[in-house]
Structure formats: structure tokens, C-alpha cells
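Ticket #4471: structure export looks truncated?
Reporter: QA, pipeline team
Priority: medium

Steps to reproduce: submit the single chain below to the structure queue and open the exported record.
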Amino acid sequence: MVSSTSLKFGNQTRAGTQWLPIRALGFSMIWSLLITGLVTIQLALSYQGVTSRTIDVVVLFALGSFAGALFARTLASVAGRFRPQPSARFAAMFLGLITGTVGMTALFHFLQFRSYYAASHDNILSIHGVVEVLMTGASSGYIFMVESAMLLLPWGLPLALAAAWDYATSPIERKRQ
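Actual output as written to the record:
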């Protein structure tokens, strides 16, 4: 019999614990909403009209921040197993959020660039194709860093610091065996 306070999975009973992937998805949704709101406010303050370009930018940051938060949560969870001190958990979450959000959004930006230039590129298995992909990646990274720095800074850092502090001060999540 399954009660409301304990769930029976095979030979394991987990009393009163939440399912960890649900918490990670919830955290990722909240982080994505915060970053998307920040980008939307920054675009509005720069007097950008609501165009297809601004909507694309907002959607790009929404997807990138969601995937980046999943990356950060996973990194912080793995690091927390080896170093459960609050300072280590704070550092893992902060670095994970910064690199994950910027990295995943830059990856999605590169994929958008790559799909745009794919019609004029050589076969990717040729030397010219590899050079073209590398140069597309370099130009995409440069353009993304110049454009996104204005959208994420300075308010993205306090958001990341607050999220990392919240994660570091929360109880350690452990799977019961």
C-alpha cells in the first residue's frame, strides 16, 4: 500500500522527499523567466520596438537560460556530492549559471547562424567545410558576446549571485538508498 508520505519503488522507500528532476525543472523555469524578463526589459529600455528580431532574441535567451540552468543544477549537484560545503556549492552554482546560460545561448546562436549559412557552405566533411564552420563559429561567438553583454550585464550578475546563494544555503539534496 502506498501512503501519501512514503512512496514504494522496488525495494526502496522514499519518505517525504521530493523528486529531484522536478525541482531542477522548476529551478530552470524560474531562471529562464528571470533572464527572459531581464532581456525583455533591457530591450525595452534601449527603445527597441517589438519586431521579429527582438522576439527572436528573447526566445533565444529563454531557451539558452533554461538549458543553462539545467546544466548549472546538474553541475552543482555533482559538485555538491564531492564537496558539500556551502562555499563549494555556491561556487559550483554560480559558475554553472554563468557559463551555462551564456554558453547554451551562444550555442543556440551558433546553430542559428550555421543554419543560415549552410546553403552557401561546402560539405562539412571537407577541409573547406570545416574552416567555414570554424569561422562561422568564431564570428557567431564574437557577435553574440558583443550583443549579449549589453543585455545581461550588469543585472545578470546579481541574479546569478542570488540564485547561487539560495542554492548554497538550502539543505543538501541527497537521494536515499
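Status: closed, not a bug. The export was complete when the record was re-opened. Leaving a note from the reviewer for reference: Strands lie at 6-9, 12-15.
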